[in-house]
Task: structure prediction
Amino acid sequence: MRAKKAALRGGTGRSSQKQGEKVGKKNSMRRKVTRTGMLEKLKKSVPVSENREGERARTRQCVRCGLCLAACPLSGAWPPAGEVATPRGKVAMLQGFLAGELVPDTFFAAEFWQRCTLCRACETACPVGVPVAELVVGARRWLLEQGKVPATAAGALRSLRLYGNPWRRPPAERHAWAALLGLKDYARGARAETLLYLGCLAAYDPRAQRAARALAQLLLAAGVDFAVLGAAEVCCGREAYSLGEEGLFVWLAEKNLELWRRHGVRRVVTFSPHCYDAFKNLYPPWGEVWHYSDFLAPLVENGRLRFAPGPSRRVAYHDPCHLGRHNGVYEAPRALLRQLPGVTLVEVGAEYGPGVCCEAGGGRMWLPAPAGSRSPAHDLLRRAAALGAEVVAVACPFCLVSLDGAVQTGQGDLPAVTELAELLWGALAR
Amino acid sequence: MLEEFARVVGAENVLVAPSQRTCYAADFYPGERHLPAAVVVPRRVVEVPAVVRLAYRYGLPLVPRGSGTSVTGGVVPVRGGLILDLSRLNHVLRVDAPNLYAVLEPGVVWADLNRALAGHGLFTPATPGSGRVSTVGGSVACGGSGMRSLKYGTVREQVLALTVVLPGGEAIHLGSRTAKTACGYALKDLFIGAEGTLGVITEVTLKLWPRPAATVVVEAELEALEEATTALGVLRREGMTPAAYELVPAATLRLAGRADFPAAGLLMAEFDGAEAEVDRAGARLGQLLRGPRWVWADAAARADAWRRFGEIYFCLARLKPSPVAEDVGVPVAEVPRALRLLEELFRSHGVEAGLMSHAGDGTIHCVLSADREDAAAWAQVRAARAALYRLVLELGGTLTTEHGLGISRAPFARWQLGGAQRLMRQIKQAVDPQNLMNPGKMGLEPAAGEDAG
Ligand SMILES: Cc1cc2nc3c(=O)[nH]c(=O)nc-3n(C[C@H](O)[C@H](O)[C@H](O)COP(=O)(O)OP(=O)(O)OC[C@H]3O[C@@H](n4cnc5c(N)ncnc54)[C@H](O)[C@@H]3O)c2cc1C
Ligand code: SF4
Ligand code: SF4
Result:
């Protein structure tokens, strides 16, 4: 009980206090086992302020070998360069702070907010397993408690609280396009065991909508019995978590769990790897959770989806951080691409490094980089272009929006950016 | 005063915020942490002499720094002052393929250099284990080496010429881009391994080698550690010197989590050269050994074997929060005996330690588990290290084969150097009379560091 309160208190001073009360009241109706499960899971990120010694021990795992130095996509993206912009530097700053030797200054705050996409490339390079991304989240939680939060991020969090999405868009308009497509909608009394959870980008961003529509159509074509939550869907909370607002994350998670329970959902298929990561790794153990690439792969294999011959194209697949490094899903999207007639798969070959991340994850969508910085998204596109890729395929709406934007602002001949679901839908034999 | 530095390198490249300085307080060696007063990050090589001149004018200690992968406290600013972060001076200035050398800025990372050379069919055998991130300047400054020094020599043997900025700011050129030179004192060699205590290396001319046509890796489980040294003797007499020759005793493998390792030790040997040559050498080594052995010829299989091997080091390094790395050396034939004596030494001092040997050159890496915050255990580690140095000197060995002295070995340097230490101090006094270049390192001052005694 004590631990639960502690977890709920994490977050911005006043607003999350309210949050905590709300959750607290609702809590009496909750099954206790769910709550405990949730909090157990949440121990992953420890609010720095509440478990200083534990967090310090995690920073002390770092042996300062420096092997993460070449991994970070943002290290050289804007000045200052050098040690201060590296993952090892972040761990050192945090350790100094937790040991009481360092009072976080403006630079500290800027580095922890802006120079991290939680991509985990550094963790891939780290030989001793320092959980850098979780440490960054812990630092953000502390900064948020202190009110040291960039206005853009604070705005997104406020909107999540008020509207269930980070862009202050009316919930009633959420997934309006899905209704036009005639998808089954739980809110309109439909029943189905499989929920297609679409997420906030697919709800409001036109580019992401196109891809989400393709995914829904693929599922229909494969004869999958599924429904969406339509206007009733709320954010999964992953980006709230990434921005250090754990109280808000718990609140959103409870809303989602409640909806699933109410509608008898047994299986969730997500469009976005970010939602997938939240459901799979941050929510308490719950039913079946699938990213759509993993869900579609067997449908293609057993012939429920077939593809028509298409033009020959060189396609580079970019691994979304929250699908690949966070969840180890590397093969399913590639297997799908290999099924497409005419497609030659190109490996961008970035085990890690500048081309490893689209730059939009980890809350960075609401933490714009300083003006004039070098964009990892451009690095990625240039690398793909150099390998002769005509198309960069992604399986994530964040990557899609970020890389598509980078094509618009980039120079030279850059590959087109498309979503895996769009490619599949376009190639479907009809 | 800092404004003057800002005028040279740009205000955004003089870092003074406490959080920024904190990032530069320590390296792999857990023994000491000190904050610099500021960090200066030059954008161009031409800015370095001006920075050094200013530091000298204001009497500020100056610590040159590459990637900070030193394991000896070499980049820790023990007297405060300035860190000179050279990581942005990372341009490969020229690859001269016909003459087989490359001209490099000091901050070039080994991995980037090798990527640049791949297109020319060339490579640098001196790449250290940390080469994915560490700089050429750092290796030259430490007199380091890679795993392949048995066949190709250490970094020292790869450097043809250097440009060095002396305390006070004057740049001098040492050595020559010719294959050999007899012109004057071997001053180039004085700066190789000087660990930044005599000046700042701002340009390195490095020998290049044609990429070998073929490579094989032999992995073998040994019934006795002596097999490794005996086989090496035969191979060398028959003109089949391995590029790498690595030996790990069973106790270390067990400590690293391979509880079921069935033999006395693990040997990894790499041969490179013409295809027929490496096949013959691989087969010959196979003949010379008795236990199970595998030959990896395919590039992916070789990389995998080395990756598995490399993991052993960090399985040891993560046993406790602040491991200490040692790189003592003994004459090659003594390696098996030394490994046993060292195991016994650490056991008797109550310190958990893993041993990995570049058995071809006599290096024995020791990874000591340690927790810097446990005073009693830390004292034990210190005692074990002192005993370790005494033992290797008795065996005719050396305190360090590649990492240098830094802070961690400084108090013990005189055990090996004896009277030579006085001469080193006189040279330091002559080149850096104010003692501002990376002060407090290498035992150049009496009783440096907390480990004294
Ligand atoms: C995982 C790991 C593996 C390692 N493997 C090896 C190995 O196989 N072989 C090996 O030799 N070492 C190895 N080391 C030690 C270390 O990486 C090397 O000493 C490396 O060469 C240091 O390079 P750096 O750029 O990090 O230098 P830094 O750590 O930044 O500096 C090292 C020293 O050189 C001085 N220095 C740096 N640049 C200059 C310059 N331009 N001018 C003057 N002085 C300078 C510094 O003042 C300091 O004293 C390893 C370390 C780690 C953590
Ligand atoms: S998680 Fe990614 S962005 Fe963040 S520090 Fe690590 S490598 Fe850099
Ligand atoms: S790779 Fe891991 S242990 Fe090494 S410096 Fe980076 S965070 Fe620390």
Observations:
- The pocket of flavin-adenine dinucleotide (ligand 1) is lined by residues A 65; B 27-28, 63-71, 74-75, 86, 106, 128-130, 134-135, 137-139, 141-142, 144-146, 195-196, 200-201, 402-403, 438 (CB under 6 Å).
- The domain at 46-145 of chain A is CATH 1.10.1060.10 (Fumarate Reductase Iron-sulfur Protein; Chain B, domain 2).
